Amino acid sequence: MAPFSFRQFILAATSLVSAQSTTSSSPADGLSVTSGYSVTSSPTVGTATVNGTATTYSVQFTVPASVDVGPNVLPNIKDQQAKQAQSLCPGYTASDVKHTANGVTATLNLAGDACNVYGTDIETLSLAVDFQTAHRLAVSIQPAYLDSSNMSQYILSEELVPFPEQGVVQSDTQDIDLQFSWSNDPSFSFTVLRKSTGDVIFDTRGSVLVYENQFIEFVSQLPENYNLYGMGERIHDLRLGNNFTATFYAADAGDPIDQNIYGTHPFYLDTRYYEVDETTGEKTLVTGQNISATNTYESYSHGVFQRNAHGMEALMLPTNITWRSLGGSIDLYFFDGPSQAEVTKQYQFGAIGLPAMQQYFTFGFHQCRWGYKNWTELEDVVNTYRAFDIPLENIWTDIDYMFQYRDFTNDPNTFPYGPGQDFLARLKAAGQHYIPIVDSAIYIPNPNNASDNYSIYTDGNDHGVFLNNPDGSQYIGEVWPGYTVFPDWHSNESVPWWTRSLKGHHDNIAWDGIWIDMSEVSSFCIGSCGTHNLSLNPVHPPFGLPGEVGSVVYGYPEGFNLTNATEAAAATSSAAAQASSANAASPPSTATTAYFVSTVTPGVRNVNQPPYVINNVQGDLAVHAVSPNATHVDGIEEYDVHNLFGHQILNATYQALLEVIPDKRPFIIGRSTFAGSGKWAGHWGGDNTSLFAYMYFSIAQALNFALFGIPMFGVDTCGFNGNSDEELCNRWMQLSAFFPFYRNHNVLSANSQEAYVWASVAEASKTAMQIRYSLLPYMYTLFYYASTTGSTVMRALAWEFPNDPTLAAIDNQFLLGPSLLIAPVLGQGQTSVQAVFPGIAQGGLWYDWYTQEPITAKPGENVTISAPLGHIPVFIRGGAVLPQQEALYTTAECRNSSWSLIAALSAQGTATGQLYIDDGESIVPPATLLVDFTVGNGSLWASARGAYVDTNSLANVTLLGVASQPANVSLNGQAVSTGVSYNETSRVLSIRDLQSVTTKGAWAEDWVLSWA
């Protein structure tokens, strides 16, 4: 299937995906960005002045929706009248160039009159080029010194985001396959070349450097039809394309397609393909779409990381990538690869940090929803999963469990501590686990109500751990509990306070991990809207909750009307009536659209309304977020570090869990992330929608987070927003079974979508879980290597088969590790998939998981694979040895079961594999075991090293692709006379019931299994 036709199909299948933006359409006249509205109150009533109109409220106050409406701003990339810095600015000239032991330094001076297009030009910059390792080059450009024009310029602190480790300068550091060159013709520019190919991989020639206190722009030329990946976080195809703008601004915006959402990862992988002349060996860069299956190709990949936490844009244009930042510095790191696997390892190892190793139980299935009402309902869900024999490892609670949505509390009426402790005791006795949500904002009590006390706030306030306004008063926004304050992670007291808070809650409810939400950081009003308003602390957010009048959930997946015509018709009619009622209440404005435009005042920074307008999904930077002028204890404004809040709360939570649950690896899933967050946490894809489109995009999301060093990734299976249906949930439960983080989660008031709700979904889930749970040793081994070497767990086909340019854009299939190929059904009504099988041209083999027979395919061919509802195509790569254990109900049961091996032989009759074992939970395991498997010449060798003792016996060995029935089978020279069978049709050799000859444990002694 053509790479881009699948996206076009999936988007055409839904009319909802084009209307996901929540950007406000008009300004709220008279709305102050510092307060939002003024409120006076009495014990029973309050008067709010909004947009000049006085309104009287009861003490059951709801903040009006207008408080989260900002001025209407037009992104510069959509403004045809916007100033173009490249044509207006003079650039810089390099001087005082000096060579250092491992690079170059220079001074850059403005080459002409200041242009001041979107800020104040900084006249003098410093350049530092540093060949840091044998695979990493750093290029830094920042103000040379602080003067009146840049005194407020913030350069990202090493304390917040550590610099990539310098490491030990070795003799091969200068052997890096990268070369830096610069020129002053006509102004300063630089290039980075790959020495082995002569290819220019970064090229600022033909453009000018623009460096102002609120605007930085630099341009790098790119070849035609380039292949860039990464640049997250967003819902988009894996291959980014050459007509796309990536915005880097953490946003609580749901999951709009193609726009910025929760996290910020300014990193891209660039892969370039070369056609190789087999006679001369000459390599020619492939820039077009005419690729022949008979030609020979090689690829070279490199990575680029822009270490900057400000709001940014990267414009991917047909001939270049243009970076624009609202501040900070140019802090570029180039990784030479030359393969994707090596780039990813170089980026993680020593640069942003290696992913956290996860506890074994976290790879079990997780169930959650917004709307579980009490412990009884939660236990009913757990018991119903057990009754249907659908494995459930972890049960979660959303904000429902809290007392008035306040962090670290339980509602005494619905989730009281005593019954909760009893439930958790039963849960843990069954080998299962519990994870609650923790939000990022802290309720601030009403000072006029003596009974409205909240010790979490009091403790934090006493220790000065909350963000302030510029005048030193406390910044008070609004989130789920009402008026809230926000942790200031720059305060030295913040992590100890957060630790005390988590420990206090864990003492009452012994959870096993933490789910961090709303960490962009989100606020439901613009500015410090709670200032002077605390006596009317709101009891409801300024928008309708799902299920309330005007916000009833009527959405269904694509094609729902084809299988549920009556219900679909009723939903469509009700949705239309709801929309009509909303339109009648708020008729569209007929006024001409007016946009707020911020002007440049030399020497002054306007952080709330910067002169350059990035293409932020929320529009104004303060909408649905803490305002840019919120101030940290060290004087740094939120404008400069907004993208780091989610990163820092994950760090704080990781440090806290090390004390709360000592010696065990912290299990944390967070929403907002930054480069390096994977050191502490995993991530889920956020508030997706119950549509096939989002199931399709989940693959690209997961692959991007593999590049970002966050392999513990999954999405809300069956969809979060809207109602799922049987077909979508059937397909999605099977797809997510092959993602590392496997959780079903949906929105308040939508139809229940637990795996047991539909009979076919229950069966499909058990089928996929059977495969997943049997392969947990394989997945756990993949994570061991990810956490120690930076390798990926989920992989794009193009990464594992780097010399096949036809795979460059494929994102409707993926690999789990090097050995499993997943080809899911991703569209409504489909009963087959078109799958490609990479490596066939080089003699590779693929085996069907279910039949264990080899697949017949030609190079580059789309093979039609039957996939009726309830079946997900899975294939084993020839040459792989996969360790397995029994697929039982919990991961603890699985770990204590017998071992099996599947060896899928290559065309040459060979195969290899590895198995990593430890206790599954310790931060520093007291003992480990690594087992190597090698197949060749009719023998399978297993040899172990390490002190971990695993006493589970070996039960079965299955060999795929054995050419003929063997005359005899032996284990360490002793004949195996029973349990041996051979299928001449499938060419599968099975050896069963080996427990009696491995009673000390499958890996207690090295062994060789031979067949002749």
TrEMBL record:
Keywords: Glycoprotein, Glycosidase, Hydrolase, Signal
Keyword match Signal: yes
Signal peptide residue numbers: 1-19
Pfam hit, one: Glyco_hydro_31_3rd
Positions of the Glycoside hydrolase family 31 TIM barrel domain: 355-782
InterPro entries: Gal_mutarotase_sf_dom, GH, Glyco_hydro_31_AS, Glyco_hydro_31_C, Glyco_hydro_31_CS, Glyco_hydro_31_TIM, Glyco_hydro_b
Enzyme class at the top of the EC tree: hydrolase
Single GO MF descriptor: alpha-1,4-glucosidase activity
Domain Glycosyl hydrolase family 31 C-terminal as annotated: residue spans: 790-882
Presence of the UniProt keyword Glycoprotein in the record: yes
Name of protein: alpha-glucosidase
